[in-house]
Design brief:
By secondary structure, the chain is an alpha/beta fold. Helices cover 29% and strands 26% of the residues.
């Protein structure tokens, strides 16, 4: 028997508090319950979660909208009983095959079931920079990976290019402005009046207040448009794109309850067929490599999470209700 075997047996017997989802519905249908801790796999680590964060994806998952997504999430009731993905915490035990981590290590990453006091994770977990709080680290995974992959991989941004971020004040947008600057781009941020100063502090070279100016009717042309807010038709968006530009679609308006934002994404993609510009829609994928890259950016001060509100684990329904309003600035964090 290895030295780690007792830890595996002990943690399997313990209890924890977790947010439990038994059906689709409003966030108020979620319940805080005491359940068994997850068993520790040989190739995984058990993390005592100190903080998590919620994203638009959790709101969709809890409410079960758009309906087509239930094909993957569960047609009648959700397959995943504990919502949440982003986490930061301390390693409590490690499996016998694990060599990268030790008990006591501070980590962050992404794993289903993050809205709980404990979780086990095999792959998408990395060490947390010492100069970053648990709350800051927990705000990073989903939003920052989406921004990073949208700009670097799908947008193929290069130093000196002009980048426009539409929806610069939300979770993805606040990271996108900072990451685009870190990658050497000239950044224009589009947001509402109350977020203009925030966008400037994030490093945007130019800020457009969409309540005062229609960015699609300006004279500027961009090499990359990262569209987080969505809602604008292809006929408007193409006016501000260079001939060889890329339009990366991240989000869109809720639209009808069947397709939700996917309806907008499909309309833009179909309308752009035959155009010289490339239109891309993607779903971000967690990788340890990208978590490490973001950790280095955090440590170097190249990105700084913007935390709008903090809630306790018991207040997750209220946190998701706030996310559902669409008015969150930066990230909404859950302290565990």
């Amino acid at each position: 028997m290895t030295a780690n075997a007792p830890a595996q047996q002990d943690t399997a017997k313990g209890k924890m508090r977790a947010i439990v989802q038994e059906r689709y519905g409003p966030p108020e249908a979620l319940r805080l319950r005491e359940i068994d801790r997850p068993a520790l796999p040989e190739d995984g680590v058990l993390v005592r979660v100190h903080a998590s964060s919620v994203n638009r994806a959790e709101w969709y998952g809890v409410t079960g909208t758009p309906y087509f997504a239930r094909v993957f999430a569960g047609p009648i009731r959700p397959k995943q009983s504990i919502p949440g993905v982003d986490f930061a915490g301390v390693v409590e035990a490690v499996g016998s095959a694990v060599t990268r981590f030790r008990p006591g290590d501070e980590v962050f990453g992404g794993r289903n079931g993050a809205l709980a006091e404990y979780l086990t994770v095999r792959k998408n977990v990395v060490h947390k920079p010492a100069n970053v709080t648990f709350e800051e680290a927990a705000s990073v995974p989903t939003a920052a990976i989406t921004a990073l992959q949208g700009l670097r991989d799908h947008g193929q941004v290069r130093p000196g290019q002009k980048v426009l971020v539409n929806g610069a004040a939300g979770g993805v947008g606040t990271f996108a402005v900072q990451i685009a600057k870190a990658l050497g781009a000239h950044v224009t941020a589009v947001c509402s009046t109350r977020n203009v100063e925030l966008a400037r502090t994030l490093g945007a070279d130019r800020v457009i207040d969409y309540t005062q100016e229609d960015f699609t009717r300006g004279g500027e042309r961009y090499d990359l448009l990262l569209d987080v807010a969505g809602g604008r038709p292809w006929s408007a968006l193409r006016r501000v794109l260079e001939r060889s530009a890329r339009l990366v679609l991240v989000g869109g308006p809720m639209g009808n309850p069947v397709l939700g934002p996917v309806g907008h994404l499909l309309r833009v993609r179909l309308a752009s067929l035959g155009a010289s510009q490339k239109v891309v829609f993607f779903i971000a994928k967690f990788t340890p490599e990208d978590l490490l890259a973001l950790g280095k950016m955090l440590e170097a001060g190249k990105i700084k999470p913007v935390i709008d509100r903090r809630y306790t684990l018991a207040e997750v329904p209220e946190a998701l209700g706030y996310i559902g309003t669409g008015h969150a600035r930066g990230k909404v964090v859950i302290t565990v």
